[in-house]
């Protein structure tokens, strides 16, 4: 049995479990199984590996995309540059980390971009936000990081700093926080949504619910909106290719 899984905490309604179970069934992939491994601490990872030696690959989600890195034997160059890992291969006790969030985000974002999407607000500072920043740098899109408190990053502001003038300049807004994720579906980033325009593009890395409170506010202002489902599907396929050396 080829065993794969997802580590994070809490896992709740897992995209990965549903996605890979369906993939194995529809593509008639035999002897493959995907399981959830909610770890209350990343320090539980070595014990998980000891208890499940048949594990061939792991996906990594909140809050361990950065914390998992010291446990890895090797880290892919891209993941090293980003400073976050969301995919791990396990081979003869050696763990190699990759970042496929960049693939998922870039491929799902690019078709939506217009020439006026030259500046972005990145809401959040976690591992997923680092992958988003990497892609924006690659695409030549200037960005500012938004967090609840002032960060040491030179391109950092707080939510209180966002006003009409800021939103007139930054027409791409990416939510990299868990705000709005099931079951806390009413939560959303604290930005002045009344200043959004049809030229704005709101991208939410959250996929469940399909239309988050953040995206609902955008729709009220007739903005273009995108949830995180396609990003997750693309990175899941990228994970599968890495796990199976395709």
UniProtKB/TrEMBL annotation:
SUPFAM superfamilies: Aminoacid dehydrogenase-like, N-terminal domain, NAD(P)-binding Rossmann-fold domains. Keywords: Amino-acid biosynthesis, Aromatic amino acid biosynthesis, Oxidoreductase. Pathway: Metabolic intermediate biosynthesis; chorismate biosynthesis; chorismate from D-erythrose 4-phosphate and phosphoenolpyruvate: step 4/7. The keyword rRNA-binding does not apply. It comes from the Bacteria. Residues 6-88 form the Shikimate dehydrogenase substrate binding N-terminal domain. The keyword Oxidoreductase applies. Signal peptide: none annotated. InterPro entries: Aminoacid_DH-like_N_sf, NAD(P)-bd_dom_sf, Shikimate_DH-bd_N, Shikimate_DH_fam. Pfam families: Shikimate_dh_N. This is Shikimate dehydrogenase family protein. It comes from Ferruginibacter yonginensis.
């Amino acid at each position: 049995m080829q065993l794969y899984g997802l580590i994070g905490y809490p896992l709740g309604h897992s995209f990965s479990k549903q996605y890979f179970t369906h993939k194995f069934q529809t593509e008639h992939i035999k002897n493959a199984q995907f399981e959830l491994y909610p770890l209350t601490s990343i320090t539980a990872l070595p014990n998980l590996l000891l208890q499940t030696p048949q594990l061939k690959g792991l996906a990594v989600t909140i809050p361990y995309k950065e914390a998992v890195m010291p446990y890895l034997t090797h880290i892919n160059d891209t993941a090293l540059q980003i400073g976050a890992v969301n995919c791990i291969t396990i081979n003869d006790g050696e763990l190699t980390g990759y970042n496929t969030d960049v693939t998922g985000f870039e491929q799902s974002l690019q078709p939506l971009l217009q020439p006026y999407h030259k500046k972005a607000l990145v809401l959040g500072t976690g591992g997923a936000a680092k992958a988003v920043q990497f892609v924006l740098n690659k695409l030549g899109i200037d960005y500012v990081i938004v967090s609840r408190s002032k960060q040491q990053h030179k391109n950092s502001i707080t939510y209180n700093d966002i006003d009409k003038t800021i939103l007139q300049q930054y027409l791409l807004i990416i939510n990299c926080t868990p705000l709005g994720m099931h079951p806390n579906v009413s939560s959303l980033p604290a930005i002045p949504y009344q200043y959004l325009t049809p030229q704005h593009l709101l991208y939410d890395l959250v996929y469940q619910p399909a239309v988050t409170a953040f995206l609902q506010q955008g729709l009220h202002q007739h903005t273009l909106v995108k949830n995180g489902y396609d990003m997750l599907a693309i990175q899941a396929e990228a994970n599968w290719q890495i796990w199976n050396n395709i």
